[in-house]
Amino acid sequence: MHQRAVRNLAKLDTTQARITRIFDAAAGGKNNFLADRDTVRHFDQATPALTNAARAVLEFLTRMIRHLAADEGVDQFMIVGSGIPGLPDGLLLHDVARRAAAARDLRVVYVENNPMVVTMAQATVEPFTDLVRVVDGDVREIDEMLHDHVVQTYLDWDRPVAILLLSAYCLDEDEYAHYVVKRLRHTAAPGSFLGLLHTTFDGVPAELLPAIRDLLAMTLPRLAIRSREEVESLLEGLDLVEPGLVWVPRWRPDGSTVACAAEPAASGNYGALARIP
Predict the structure, then answer these.
(1) Strand runs (DSSP E) across the chain, as ranges?
(2) Cis peptide before 243, with omega less than 30 degrees from 0?
(3) What is the mean pLDDT of the chain?
(4) Which SUPFAM superfamilies match (predicted)?
(5) Which is more confident, 166 or 39?
(6) DSSP three-state, residue 186
(7) Quick one: DSSP state of residue 63?
């Protein structure tokens, strides 16, 4: 096991819920603890939407990655803050990319700040493939994250890369959130892609908002929640791939799109994919 994984394991706190583990628990995954499952139960008591929302997000990520690998010809990915979730068919996100890609040597770097996720992935994924790396990094420290040795050397930054920013919920300061997107845009080569997932309250009925806000304040303080207009502003100047910024179930739905399909706003998340000029 890598030394970094050992250090992460020493920092592991199983008593506090974490957003990536909460989504994993809601989607039926195994990378979570009792605190995360309790949070899911608390949310479902306020509104029974979290489980379906988590599944809608996983379906969205699967479709976006498949599109990038199969239709856009992307052969290298940096996935930031996914939690490396297990999909219902037993696959991981890099498996989806590799199955869809024409290139056999497609490379994926996961960037995670969750000690459990990093430790488990470095111990159970990296030893079985030379085409996946898991990096201990935090989008709230974007410069340090991008200067990581593995990030710098494992991917070829002179060629297009797909950067999936899935942890924008960590960026509660608007100015810094814009800086992060700008840094990623300027780091990637022309022809790269930036995928964005962002949580919102836009679809929450007004009568439920107070209970949900109170629950978030207790369980996930400083979680960034933005309106559609605010998320749009993060992507200003980028060429959005059709259908643009939409509820995640409406992003290129296919026959496998099930969760929240009848009520897309119940997903609680917007998604978009943009080309970097």
Answers:
(1) 76-80, 107-112, 132-136, 162-165, 193-199, 239-240, 246-247, 269-275
(2) yes
(3) 86
(4) S-adenosyl-L-methionine-dependent methyltransferases
(5) 166
(6) helix
(7) H
- What percentage of residues in the chain have a pLDDT greater than 90? 57
- For residue 28, the model assigns a pLDDT of 64
Residue 2 has pLDDT above 90, yes or no: no
**Where is pLDDT greater, at 224 or 33?**
224
Q: Which residues of 78-101 are buried (b: 16+ CB within 10 A; e: fewer)?
A: bbbbbbbbbbeeeebbbbbbbebb
Q: How many CA atoms lie within 13 A of 139 on its CB side?
A: 29
Q: Would you kindly state where each structural domain of the chain is located, as residue ranges?
A: 3-11+56-201+230-275
3-11+56-201+230-275 falls under which CATH superfamily?
Vaccinia Virus protein VP39 (3.40.50.150)
d(C-alpha 110, C-alpha 112), whole Å: 6
More confident residue, 95 or 10: 95
The predicted model scores a pTM of: 0.85
Token look-up 């791939």 returns 241
242: exposed, middle or buried (Cβ count in 10 Å: 0-12, 13-18, 19+): exposed
